[in-house]
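Q: Protein A?
A:
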Amino acid sequence: MRYILTDEEMKAYDRWTIQSMGIPSLVLMERAALSCVDALYDNGFDLTRVLVVCGTGNNGADGVAAARILHLRGICTEVWMVGNPEKFSPDLRKQMKIAENYDVTFVHSPDPHEYTTIVDALFGIGLHRNLEGVFAEAVHKINDSNARVLSVDVPSGVSGTTGAVLGTAVHADMTQTFAWEKRGLILYPGAAYAGKVLTADIGIYLPKGELPGCALTEDCDVTEFYGQRPDWGNKGTFGKILLLAGCDAMYGAAYLSASAALLSGAGMVKIHTARENADALRISLPEAMLSFYPKENTGENAELEAFAPGEEWADLIAAGPGLGTSGAARLLVHRLLVSCEKPCVFDADALNIISEDTDMLRQRKNLTVITPHIGEMARLTGESPAVIKADPIACAVKFAAAYGVICVLKDARTVTAFPDGRVYLTASGNSGMATAGSGDVLTGIMAGMLAQRGADVKAVPAAVHFHGLCGTAAACRGARPALTAGEILRAVPEVMHKLGIF
């Protein structure tokens, strides 16, 4: 995994480098400018005529420095300063003076259509207000041009922390960011504006012993997890999972989850489901064991007695896929919340049941993972889906801390938040995974990975990343809109092989 920063974290590390370590801001600025120039050369930008659009702060100063370097390399480069000169930062004034000494050309009201490349250095990190006036006009002109666009640090108008578009934003072909990626370059909608993201080491590092609050999962998180699977194990070693899933004649979700758990490495899976699903599951998944709800109207004791042997047998319990919200389903989910001391993963209908009394989560006595999509999170929190999508990291972090759970908030970018404040963001996967049953496959993968390592919590973000890789592999075999959960499931062994997991 690699760290990704908020605007405030980046500002703090920048200040620490300058004030505590003694590296002058102009040195950092020079390295940032050089990295932007290198990005233009290395990525085939047409440098016949370049316009560098600069704002009033230090992002603009980076742009002026880049313009000067291009000019000294013989590139026809012009600088367009946007904003009130009285608000120019001290470092920007210094860079402008240096540029003037080297006869860099400054222009007013240029026509962006006349340029082959535009460097967007209007705003970097730390923008908190909507772009208006001359800045919004400049963004519109950049977007209306035919030039390829390189944004400096973040596309102007995109929040570096949340990825929100603040009124309007530059659509970049490429973004050259510095030191670490910013969250807003990975979260949507910011990711759709950033284009290809490059990260340059410009000499800003972490203070000793300090770590940023969020990391991006990578393939190595999956390979490291499976790399610790013992060669001497047996089916009991790799975990026994009880899957509470599938209401009357709804066996598909149970099949997908149980299959994913087995394919991801779990030793044994037992599905507790409606008796009507028996024949279908026995035929489609003979590897799984089955137990059933008792006949109707036999009372709560009978329901609990039918469930108890599986609960006692299992190392981990996953609940929710295709479960429904019947009286029996509610009884068993309540049982897992209030009395069960086994690690649990809750998804789908289990979350809908929990949302009726979320405080029951606080009664859990062992590891608890919840995997809501945006709609389910809205029911759990009472917030609107729009509010949650605007800052999913903050929402997941708040819920995880309040209820002592690991919250896996599923969306185009999935957030995994731990109760202690650790956060992982996952960018693997694709839009084709927004299909019925995809979440059931994730529940099974997560349960399978947790169970085979004694509920090691490292499995949670690794499982999310692995699920995304399976979706990508499945999409490579056909069109994304045609992707089904079954295709994601069938990609599990393929992805293991690609990652070198044998």
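Q: Protein B?
A:
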Amino acid sequence: MLTSLVVTFTPSAPAALPRDLGRAAHAVLLRQLGQQQPALAERLHNWQGPKPFTCSGVFGGARHEDQLLANPGDGLWLRYTALTAELSTALLAGPPPSHIDLAGTRMTVTGWTAEANAHARAANISYEALAAPYLLARERAERRITLRFVSPTAFKSHGQVVPLPLPASVFGGLIEKWNTYAPIALPPETKRFAEACLAISRYRLRTAVLRGKGSGDEIARISGFVGEVSYVATNPDRYWLGLINLLSDFAFFAGVGYQTTQGMGQVRRING
């Protein structure tokens, strides 16, 4: 099961928070799960390998230098995604909390949904339903695919941060996550197809810095990129194009790159 849970909230008084709140959102998730399923929360905290969830930063409010400024009534929101049935069930189980503590600020929860008709970034779908249109050739496999990188995105390679959306990096990471959690395995050669047969045709990118641990001059800063990238397939093979299209849809849930549980790598496919 694949779930995108959107949580909407508002402060009870004017608030000035850190600009980047991916780590704070991660802490909210583990606290909430810890109250309901402490063993699951502990496993997620100590997870090795590709994580079965992502956490976004906070959307809404006003950014000023290193702060996010919010007032009562502002429609702030964040999202969590789950890549396993166990975690999807845990996210949607029981009544939502009335409040959350976000970076030391008490927020009133106004919504908690995975229903696509309730929020544009919410969703709940099985792996089989996501894959069927492409694996059963029910839907056209597009040769041109555009991804919008909503939050700072980067990759780790040989100990170095690589802030470039190269096809092998983007789709190689997606195929790894898919084959870790999906009940339907895809051929690892998909990464080779992406590397050899996908070209960047257009892009509109800019450098974006995510602020992490620490404070003042000691705060950690991670450079990434945000914006849009269009990939075009130089090989029109229907089978491989279907897999690339499927992974492009999967990116909405899986995230791209590293630190996707800390607010980085939020992605969505742009149609048309």
